Amino acid sequence: FAGVEYPEGHLYEDVYTTYSYLKKCQQVTISDHYGYYYIQNPTSIVSSSFSEKQYDNVWQRLKLLEDVEVTFPNLVNEAVNKVVDGYLSTGFKLSQSIPDDLTAEYLTLLRQQIQKTRLRYGHQVSIPWQKRLALRILDFNSNIYGFLYKTYLGK
Question: Which helix H or strand E contains 124, and what residues bound it?
Answer without folding.
Answer: none
